[in-house]
Amino acid sequence: MKTLVAGMGGVGGYFGGVLAQHGADTTFLVKSEHLRRTQSVTLRVQTVDGNFTLSKPQVVETLESDICFDVILVCVKYYDLEAVAKIIAPGITPKTVVLTVQNGIDADREVLRWLEQVSVYPGSAHIISTLKEPGQVVQSGGPRTLVFGARAGGAAPRLEQSVRYLRAHGVQASVSENIERELWFKFIFALGFSGLTAVYDQSFQEIYSTPLGKAEFLEVIAQGCDLAGADGVRFKPSERLKLVERADSHLLEAAPATSSLQRDLRQGRRSEVEALHGTALRYARKYGLSLPAIESIYQRILARASVPR
Predict the structure, then answer these.
(1) How many CB atoms lie under 10 A from the CB of residue 244?
(2) Domain holding 16: CATH number?
(3) Which of 147, 177, 207 is the last residue of a domain?
(4) Is 22 in contact with 14 (CB distance < 8 Å)?
(5) pTM, whole model, 2 decimals?
(6) What b-and-e string marks burial along 206-241, b requiring 16 or more CB atoms within 10 Å of the CB?
(7) Three-state DSSP class for 3?
(8) Domain of 244?
(9) Hey, CA dihedral for 168, 170, 172, 173, is it positive or negative?
(10) In angstroms, how far is the first alpha carbon of the chain from the final one?
(11) Which of 11, 180, 218, 241 has its CA 20 to 30 A from that of 28?
(12) Which helix (H) or strand (E) holds 20?
Protein backbone atom coordinates (compact mmCIF):
# COMPACT_ATOMS: atom_id res chain seq x y z
CA MET A 1 0.00 0.00 0.00
CA LYS A 2 1.18 3.51 -0.80
CA THR A 3 0.80 6.11 1.94
CA LEU A 4 0.83 9.88 1.66
CA VAL A 5 1.35 11.94 4.80
CA ALA A 6 0.23 15.53 4.22
CA GLY A 7 2.34 17.63 6.55
CA MET A 8 5.78 17.01 8.00
CA GLY A 9 5.43 18.87 11.28
CA GLY A 10 5.22 17.46 14.77
CA VAL A 11 2.31 15.11 14.07
CA GLY A 12 2.94 14.21 10.43
CA GLY A 13 6.68 13.97 10.95
CA TYR A 14 6.24 11.60 13.88
CA PHE A 15 3.58 9.25 12.50
CA GLY A 16 4.93 9.37 8.95
CA GLY A 17 8.40 8.73 10.29
CA VAL A 18 7.21 5.70 12.23
CA LEU A 19 5.48 4.32 9.13
CA ALA A 20 8.58 4.74 6.98
CA GLN A 21 10.83 3.33 9.68
CA HIS A 22 8.71 0.18 9.72
CA GLY A 23 8.92 -0.29 5.96
CA ALA A 24 5.76 1.44 4.73
CA ASP A 25 5.94 3.07 1.29
CA THR A 26 5.58 6.61 2.64
CA THR A 27 5.66 9.97 0.88
CA PHE A 28 5.46 13.33 2.66
CA LEU A 29 3.58 16.27 1.15
CA VAL A 30 5.05 19.62 2.22
CA LYS A 31 4.51 23.25 1.32
CA SER A 32 6.54 24.54 -1.62
CA GLU A 33 8.53 26.93 0.58
CA HIS A 34 9.61 23.98 2.74
CA LEU A 35 10.44 21.57 -0.09
CA ARG A 36 14.08 22.56 -0.62
CA ARG A 37 14.81 22.47 3.09
CA THR A 38 13.28 19.01 3.58
CA GLN A 39 14.47 17.25 0.42
CA SER A 40 18.09 17.24 1.49
CA VAL A 41 17.70 16.62 5.21
CA THR A 42 17.62 13.48 7.27
CA LEU A 43 14.38 13.18 9.23
CA ARG A 44 15.36 12.88 12.87
CA VAL A 45 12.64 11.84 15.28
CA GLN A 46 13.28 12.12 19.00
CA THR A 47 10.79 10.27 21.21
CA VAL A 48 10.37 9.50 24.88
CA ASP A 49 11.40 5.90 24.09
CA GLY A 50 14.43 6.69 21.94
CA ASN A 51 15.38 8.25 18.63
CA PHE A 52 15.46 7.18 14.99
CA THR A 53 16.43 8.72 11.66
CA LEU A 54 15.33 8.47 8.03
CA SER A 55 17.84 9.38 5.38
CA LYS A 56 16.29 11.54 2.65
CA PRO A 57 12.58 10.66 3.03
CA GLN A 58 10.36 10.90 -0.04
CA VAL A 59 9.10 14.50 -0.13
CA VAL A 60 6.88 16.23 -2.72
CA GLU A 61 5.02 19.54 -3.02
CA THR A 62 2.49 18.48 -5.68
CA LEU A 63 0.97 15.22 -6.91
CA GLU A 64 0.89 13.81 -10.41
CA SER A 65 -2.24 12.02 -11.62
CA ASP A 66 -0.26 8.87 -12.45
CA ILE A 67 0.79 8.33 -8.82
CA CYS A 68 -2.09 7.35 -6.55
CA PHE A 69 -2.24 6.48 -2.88
CA ASP A 70 -4.13 3.91 -0.85
CA VAL A 71 -4.04 5.86 2.42
CA ILE A 72 -3.70 9.62 2.86
CA LEU A 73 -3.06 10.82 6.39
CA VAL A 74 -3.85 14.54 6.59
CA CYS A 75 -1.74 16.12 9.34
CA VAL A 76 -1.72 19.80 8.34
CA LYS A 77 -3.26 22.58 10.39
CA TYR A 78 -7.01 23.08 10.03
CA TYR A 79 -6.66 26.32 8.08
CA ASP A 80 -4.62 24.51 5.38
CA LEU A 81 -7.28 21.88 4.66
CA GLU A 82 -8.71 23.56 1.57
CA ALA A 83 -5.30 23.98 -0.04
CA VAL A 84 -4.25 20.42 0.80
CA ALA A 85 -7.52 18.93 -0.42
CA LYS A 86 -6.97 20.50 -3.82
CA ILE A 87 -3.35 19.31 -3.97
CA ILE A 88 -4.08 15.67 -3.06
CA ALA A 89 -7.02 15.35 -5.46
CA PRO A 90 -4.91 13.90 -8.34
CA GLY A 91 -3.60 11.14 -6.06
CA ILE A 92 -7.03 9.88 -5.06
CA THR A 93 -8.82 6.87 -6.54
CA PRO A 94 -12.20 5.36 -5.60
CA LYS A 95 -10.27 3.03 -3.27
CA THR A 96 -8.29 5.74 -1.48
CA VAL A 97 -8.97 6.29 2.22
CA VAL A 98 -8.38 9.81 3.56
CA LEU A 99 -7.84 10.17 7.31
CA THR A 100 -8.01 13.52 9.12
CA VAL A 101 -6.49 14.25 12.55
CA GLN A 102 -6.87 18.03 12.93
CA ASN A 103 -7.79 19.90 16.07
CA GLY A 104 -11.50 20.61 15.91
CA ILE A 105 -14.58 18.50 15.32
CA ASP A 106 -15.35 18.80 11.62
CA ALA A 107 -12.09 18.52 9.65
CA ASP A 108 -13.43 15.63 7.59
CA ARG A 109 -16.48 17.68 6.61
CA GLU A 110 -14.21 20.53 5.58
CA VAL A 111 -12.21 18.18 3.34
CA LEU A 112 -15.42 16.85 1.80
CA ARG A 113 -16.33 20.39 0.76
CA TRP A 114 -13.48 20.15 -1.75
CA LEU A 115 -13.28 16.41 -2.43
CA GLU A 116 -16.63 14.92 -3.34
CA GLN A 117 -17.35 11.20 -3.34
CA VAL A 118 -14.18 10.39 -1.44
CA SER A 119 -13.90 8.10 1.60
CA VAL A 120 -12.89 10.52 4.37
CA TYR A 121 -12.82 9.39 7.99
CA PRO A 122 -12.32 11.72 10.97
CA GLY A 123 -9.90 10.95 13.72
CA SER A 124 -7.87 12.39 16.53
CA ALA A 125 -4.17 12.26 17.35
CA HIS A 126 -3.17 11.95 20.98
CA ILE A 127 0.42 13.13 21.09
CA ILE A 128 2.58 16.07 22.13
CA SER A 129 5.09 16.51 19.33
CA THR A 130 6.76 19.53 17.76
CA LEU A 131 8.92 20.38 14.77
CA LYS A 132 12.05 21.86 16.33
CA GLU A 133 13.52 22.69 12.92
CA PRO A 134 13.11 21.29 9.38
CA GLY A 135 13.66 17.55 9.61
CA GLN A 136 13.82 17.40 13.41
CA VAL A 137 10.73 16.19 15.29
CA VAL A 138 10.60 16.06 19.08
CA GLN A 139 7.87 13.94 20.69
CA SER A 140 7.72 14.80 24.39
CA GLY A 141 4.42 13.43 25.67
CA GLY A 142 1.03 11.88 25.08
CA PRO A 143 0.21 8.24 24.33
CA ARG A 144 1.13 8.58 20.60
CA THR A 145 -2.12 7.08 19.38
CA LEU A 146 -4.51 7.67 16.50
CA VAL A 147 -8.24 6.95 16.71
CA PHE A 148 -10.54 6.96 13.67
CA GLY A 149 -14.15 6.14 12.96
CA ALA A 150 -17.10 6.43 10.62
CA ARG A 151 -19.60 9.12 11.59
CA ALA A 152 -22.47 6.90 10.53
CA GLY A 153 -21.24 4.14 12.82
CA GLY A 154 -21.30 0.49 11.87
CA ALA A 155 -18.76 -1.42 9.82
CA ALA A 156 -16.28 0.43 7.62
CA PRO A 157 -14.16 -2.28 5.95
CA ARG A 158 -11.78 0.05 4.12
CA LEU A 159 -11.17 2.11 7.24
CA GLU A 160 -10.51 -1.04 9.24
CA GLN A 161 -8.10 -2.27 6.56
CA SER A 162 -6.25 1.05 6.63
CA VAL A 163 -5.97 0.99 10.42
CA ARG A 164 -4.63 -2.58 10.30
CA TYR A 165 -2.02 -1.36 7.83
CA LEU A 166 -1.01 1.50 10.14
CA ARG A 167 -0.70 -0.87 13.07
CA ALA A 168 1.35 -3.34 11.04
CA HIS A 169 3.82 -0.53 10.42
CA GLY A 170 4.35 0.65 13.97
CA VAL A 171 1.54 3.17 14.52
CA GLN A 172 -0.77 2.70 17.50
CA ALA A 173 -4.07 3.19 15.68
CA SER A 174 -7.59 2.00 16.42
CA VAL A 175 -11.17 2.27 15.19
CA SER A 176 -13.82 3.76 17.47
CA GLU A 177 -17.45 2.73 17.27
CA ASN A 178 -18.39 6.25 18.40
CA ILE A 179 -16.01 8.68 16.75
CA GLU A 180 -18.32 11.62 17.50
CA ARG A 181 -17.67 11.13 21.21
CA GLU A 182 -13.91 10.74 20.62
CA LEU A 183 -13.81 13.98 18.62
CA TRP A 184 -15.80 15.91 21.20
CA PHE A 185 -13.69 14.54 24.06
CA LYS A 186 -10.47 15.80 22.51
CA PHE A 187 -12.13 19.03 21.36
CA ILE A 188 -13.40 19.86 24.84
CA PHE A 189 -10.04 19.09 26.41
CA ALA A 190 -8.27 21.25 23.81
CA LEU A 191 -10.59 24.18 24.53
CA GLY A 192 -9.16 24.20 28.05
CA PHE A 193 -5.63 22.89 27.58
CA SER A 194 -4.73 24.73 24.37
CA GLY A 195 -6.78 27.78 25.27
CA LEU A 196 -5.26 28.41 28.68
CA THR A 197 -1.68 27.66 27.65
CA ALA A 198 -2.15 30.11 24.76
CA VAL A 199 -3.64 32.82 26.98
CA TYR A 200 -1.05 32.61 29.77
CA ASP A 201 1.90 31.32 27.70
CA GLN A 202 2.90 28.96 30.48
CA SER A 203 3.05 25.19 30.71
CA PHE A 204 -0.21 23.49 31.55
CA GLN A 205 1.33 22.24 34.78
CA GLU A 206 2.03 25.81 35.91
CA ILE A 207 -1.51 26.95 35.10
CA TYR A 208 -3.43 23.94 36.38
CA SER A 209 -1.51 23.78 39.67
CA THR A 210 -2.98 27.15 40.74
CA PRO A 211 -6.53 27.42 42.16
CA LEU A 212 -7.49 30.05 39.59
CA GLY A 213 -6.08 28.12 36.65
CA LYS A 214 -7.75 24.88 37.68
CA ALA A 215 -11.09 26.62 38.25
CA GLU A 216 -10.95 28.23 34.82
CA PHE A 217 -10.09 24.90 33.19
CA LEU A 218 -12.97 23.13 34.93
CA GLU A 219 -15.39 25.86 33.85
CA VAL A 220 -14.30 25.44 30.22
CA ILE A 221 -14.78 21.68 30.50
CA ALA A 222 -18.29 22.13 31.92
CA GLN A 223 -19.28 24.53 29.16
CA GLY A 224 -17.74 22.28 26.50
CA CYS A 225 -19.71 19.29 27.77
CA ASP A 226 -22.92 21.34 27.71
CA LEU A 227 -22.18 22.27 24.10
CA ALA A 228 -21.54 18.65 23.15
CA GLY A 229 -24.83 17.68 24.76
CA ALA A 230 -26.67 20.26 22.68
CA ASP A 231 -25.09 18.67 19.61
CA GLY A 232 -26.29 15.22 20.65
CA VAL A 233 -23.18 13.89 22.41
CA ARG A 234 -23.94 13.72 26.11
CA PHE A 235 -21.16 13.14 28.61
CA LYS A 236 -22.02 11.30 31.82
CA PRO A 237 -20.45 12.52 35.08
CA SER A 238 -17.96 9.63 34.89
CA GLU A 239 -16.95 10.71 31.39
CA ARG A 240 -16.52 14.31 32.49
CA LEU A 241 -14.31 13.01 35.28
CA LYS A 242 -12.03 11.43 32.66
CA LEU A 243 -11.39 14.88 31.22
CA VAL A 244 -10.31 16.06 34.67
CA GLU A 245 -8.19 12.94 35.20
CA ARG A 246 -6.43 13.60 31.93
CA ALA A 247 -5.59 17.09 33.14
CA ASP A 248 -4.40 15.69 36.47
CA SER A 249 -2.10 13.28 34.64
CA HIS A 250 -0.14 16.16 33.13
CA LEU A 251 0.98 17.16 36.62
CA LEU A 252 2.93 13.89 36.77
CA GLU A 253 4.83 14.56 33.54
CA ALA A 254 8.38 15.82 33.79
CA ALA A 255 8.36 17.70 30.48
CA PRO A 256 6.41 20.99 30.40
CA ALA A 257 3.09 20.42 28.60
CA THR A 258 2.53 23.11 25.98
CA SER A 259 0.17 23.41 23.01
CA SER A 260 0.67 24.11 19.32
CA LEU A 261 -1.79 27.01 19.68
CA GLN A 262 0.47 28.50 22.35
CA ARG A 263 3.63 28.00 20.28
CA ASP A 264 2.05 29.49 17.17
CA LEU A 265 1.01 32.62 19.06
CA ARG A 266 4.42 32.93 20.67
CA GLN A 267 6.13 32.81 17.28
CA GLY A 268 3.67 35.11 15.55
CA ARG A 269 2.28 32.41 13.27
CA ARG A 270 -1.28 31.82 12.20
CA SER A 271 -3.16 29.80 14.83
CA GLU A 272 -6.06 27.36 15.01
CA VAL A 273 -8.11 29.46 17.43
CA GLU A 274 -10.97 29.61 14.93
CA ALA A 275 -10.99 25.82 14.54
CA LEU A 276 -11.19 25.49 18.32
CA HIS A 277 -12.78 28.34 20.25
CA GLY A 278 -14.25 30.01 17.17
CA THR A 279 -16.01 26.77 16.26
CA ALA A 280 -17.28 26.32 19.81
CA LEU A 281 -18.82 29.79 19.76
CA ARG A 282 -20.33 29.18 16.32
CA TYR A 283 -21.99 26.01 17.64
CA ALA A 284 -23.11 27.92 20.74
CA ARG A 285 -24.89 30.51 18.60
CA LYS A 286 -26.54 27.69 16.68
CA TYR A 287 -27.95 26.19 19.89
CA GLY A 288 -28.57 29.43 21.77
CA LEU A 289 -25.99 28.74 24.48
CA SER A 290 -23.80 31.13 26.43
CA LEU A 291 -20.16 30.06 26.92
CA PRO A 292 -18.58 32.91 28.91
CA ALA A 293 -15.36 31.10 29.87
CA ILE A 294 -14.72 29.95 26.30
CA GLU A 295 -15.66 33.39 24.94
CA SER A 296 -13.20 35.00 27.36
CA ILE A 297 -10.36 32.73 26.23
CA TYR A 298 -11.23 33.38 22.59
CA GLN A 299 -11.13 37.15 23.02
CA ARG A 300 -7.87 37.06 24.98
CA ILE A 301 -6.22 34.90 22.31
CA LEU A 302 -7.35 37.32 19.60
CA ALA A 303 -5.91 40.18 21.65
CA ARG A 304 -2.58 38.38 22.02
CA ALA A 305 -2.48 37.59 18.30
CA SER A 306 -2.96 41.27 17.43
CA VAL A 307 0.05 42.42 19.46
CA PRO A 308 3.08 43.09 17.19
CA ARG A 309 6.05 40.81 17.86
Answers:
(1) 15
(2) 3.40.50.720
(3) 177
(4) no
(5) 0.94
(6) ebbeeeebbebbbbbbbbbbbbbeeeebebeeeebe
(7) strand
(8) 180-305
(9) negative
(10) 45
(11) 180
(12) helix 10-21
